[in-house]
User: What shape does this take?
Amino acid sequence: MSNRGSFSSKIGFILAAAGSAVGLGNIWRFPYLAGTNGGAGFLIIYLICIFTLCFPVMIGEISIGRKAGSDAYGSYKKIGGGVWGYLGIYGILAGILILSYYNVVAGWAFGYFIEIVFGNLLDHNDFGAFFGSYVNDIGPIFLFSLGFMVMTAVIVSQGIAKGIEAANKIMMPGLYIILIGLIVYSLTLPNAMAGIDFYLVPKLSDINSKTLFYALCQAFFSLSLGMGCLITYGSYVTKDQNIVKSAAIISLADTSVAFLSGLMVFPLVFSLGAEPGQGPKLIFVILTQAFQYMGPVVGKIVGGSFFLLICFAALTSTISLLEVPAAFLVDQRKFPRKAVVWGLSGLIFVLGLPSMYSQGLVPLLNKLPIHNTPDFLSFVADLCDIMLISGGCLMCIFIRNNWKMNNMNEELAIGNAGYTGSILKSYITFTISWVCPILLGILSILVITDKYFGLEWLFGR
Ligand code: PFF
Assistant: This one.
């Protein structure tokens, strides 16, 4: 394992995995999904999914990676033999697809940072209309997305420890500080309490099968699960690390950022008299409006810092997304890391172009003939979500039927003296053998048959 590199410290792994988890998913996607799916009802289901399904799956992934010490494909193959390697490939493909559209959204956020600091974004009076035209202003968006991909490639080509650990040490504390500052500000605005009510007081009528599906997918996406990202990062983890404790810290860090983002966004939404269910443009519209209210100088400083931190958070996630296929090609094909990283980045950037052009520029990409799927970017995002939850389900089946629970538990007991005989061990064993594979399996089948075979039991028409 030594020539593959490893994290230079225990905290290095936790920071890198938390950096992978905390990203656009927490600050951009979580609030808009909560906004379109009932607010507090979504939040509650999201938290239940994290505790019952995601936490055990995260532990499973890290332990597979550390045990096998290889990339996603190599780890499944090493422990389970031939065919299981394809489960790793499935995850690697999901990672490539996620990065293709994620990089486009990161380009939007990067563009907003530049526009706030160097342009006159905050002078506009209709931020919804501005967003619509901005994402179709293809020159800058192309450049900003390309710039983002290049930054990702530069860091990943440096290897695991140097680039990734360093970036996170600055980003995480900065993000918490600015989120808390904005929450305090938003709570002082008139009608802020209506936002708190929407976000924290559940109404049973708002919870339905759609809420369940989106909350589960969001939880998987947010914690970077189901595609071998944490198998890959787990392969760089040393044996003295307590996997269960690390997973708890990572889950908590990620969930708290998502929770705080909601706490920042919804009071703003209601005090500005805006609509919580406006979809992917939500934070771009609401926050710029709030920054404008702060006045030209303060708005520029706070808005600039906020979008810069979002870019940092997105960067530590794109790094982890690129690391998954890169580790595969370096480990399995013995290609040089630099060539692999630049080749993959170019390919994934090109794969992202249809998503980039799907926001109105190319009508064919903007109105797909799939129900509940407005544009190509959403189509890829939905497909990836399904790949993540089905990938998580198959991983549990792999551990349960192939690797076996007692072997996983043995791995988990390394670096964790009290694990054997603990309640946590029984909980993890039970959830990975029964709860996760059954629930994730049923939901994957329901969603696939609903979305792509028109059975309509989850979403309706
Ligand atoms: N967890 C990241 C976010 O919330 O933005 C996105 C992500 C990164 C998903 C890495 C999957 C992954 F492997």
